[in-house]
Amino acid sequence: MTRQHIWIVSPASARANNGNWQSASRWARFLRTRYRVTISLAWPGADTPSPAAPADLAPALLIALHARRSAASLDAWTHAWPERPSILLLTGTDLYRDIDTDASAQRSLEQAGALVLLQAAGLRMLPERLQAKSRVIYQSAATLRPAPAATRRHADICMIGHLRTEKDPHTFMRAAALVTSPTARLIHIGGALEPALATAAQVTANNEPRYRWLGAMPHGATRQRLKRSHAMALTSHMEGGANVIIEAVSAGVPVLASDINGNRGMLGDDYAGYFPPGDAAALARLIDRTIDDPSFHALLRAQCDARAPLFAPAAERAALLELVDNLLNNRMSPNQGMNK
Question: Nearest-CA neighbor of 248 among 155, 157, 114, 152?
Fold first, then answer.
């Protein structure tokens, strides 16, 4: 029996090695247990007015990541195959910027047959009429055993994310000058997407012995570095559902997170490791406290451990396959909607 074909549009490729690519790659792996899957930067029909393939050869379902950056692909799919289902995975810049200001992102919300959010707090950012066709599917990561603390010479605080404005790496850099714990070391892993931020990182590394910028690293090597860390810092101004939170939790590493909607949706409203966005002094105090107060570090780790079942690969795979199976079996049109 021929497997049905699913096409995933990801605005990032494997070379980018960012959250969008990790989501697309992981979903493709889950879906290939039942379906044939193709990943590309765009739907092939996005640049042509006619369908990209005969009806019997065209994919059965389109999955698009990013409402604005995949808008042309979703629009072309909707016009070519109006009766075939589609899924739109909403990112942080979608939820917390683009859907308020960008017409193409707003059109994508309407055209998609189903909307997927990566954390529950993001539902509040959508109009009520769109929440009916929305699902929350938490991302996942395989569990890693953390390195024993006794083997670590330094208390590394790791930040993982490419240097771009939304991630606010300046706050992490400024915190390096404010931390007082003698064993603290602030490690930043991520490629330079904005030249000014790369310059700032290099200047900080030259001037602050505690700060090290390692640049982009392969995903596997990054996870190994993360599991040897004392804690992970996430300074972003906006996040749709940060994959790095999941990877930290899955490695037993507490998170120090900016107090924003997307991070609360991942870690919970009662999490003790938040700091005000952009407040380097507050982040530095949290870093010192995690190092100097073992009971506080243990509290953060226990709170993260309590969230871990949400981020299990089996849970993400089951939720994704249930959504896809229902869309394909029911043949829902883009306007029929779904229950949460």
Answer: 157
Token reading at 198: 């790369």
- Residue 199 burial (CB count, 10 A): 12
Closest CA to 266 of 310, 297, 302, 298: 310
Residue 109 CA to residue 89 CA, distance in Å, equals: 10
Beta bridge pairs of residue 234: 257
The answer to whether 96 and 66 have CB atoms below 8 angstroms apart is: no
pTM of the model: 0.85
Beta bridge partners of 134: 115
Strand partners, 258: 275
The count of other CB atoms within 10 Å of the CB of residue 48 is 10
Q: Which two tokens stand for residue 76?
A: 């072309």
Query: Could you give the CA distance from residue 154 to residue 187 in angstroms, rounded to a whole number?
Result: 11
Could you tell me where the beta strands, DSSP code E, fall in 58-122?
61-65, 86-89, 114-117
In terms of Cα–Cα distance, which of 199, 202, 188 is closest to 235?
Answer: 188
Using DSSP, state whether 142 is helix, strand or coil.
coil
Residues 290 and 181: their CA atoms lie apart, in Å, by 10
pLDDT, tens digit, for every residue of 293-316? 999 999 999 999 999 999 999 999
To 5 degrees, how large is the angle CA 60–CA 84–CA 135?
Answer: 95
HSE value, Cβ hemisphere, 13 Å, CA-based, for 213: 23
Query: Quick count: other Cβ atoms within 10 Å of Cβ 309?
Result: 10
The SS3 call for residue 131 is helix
Distance between CA atoms of 1 and 9, rounded to whole angstroms?
25
pLDDT digits (tens, 9 = 90+) for 183-242: 999 999 999 999 999 999 999 999 999 999 999 999 899 999 999 999 999 999 999 999
Structural domains of the chain, ranges and CATH numbers in brackets: 5-139+312-330 (3.40.50.2000), 149-311 (3.40.50.2000)
Q: Is 207 exposed, middle or buried (0-12, 13-18, 19+ CB in 10 A)?
A: exposed
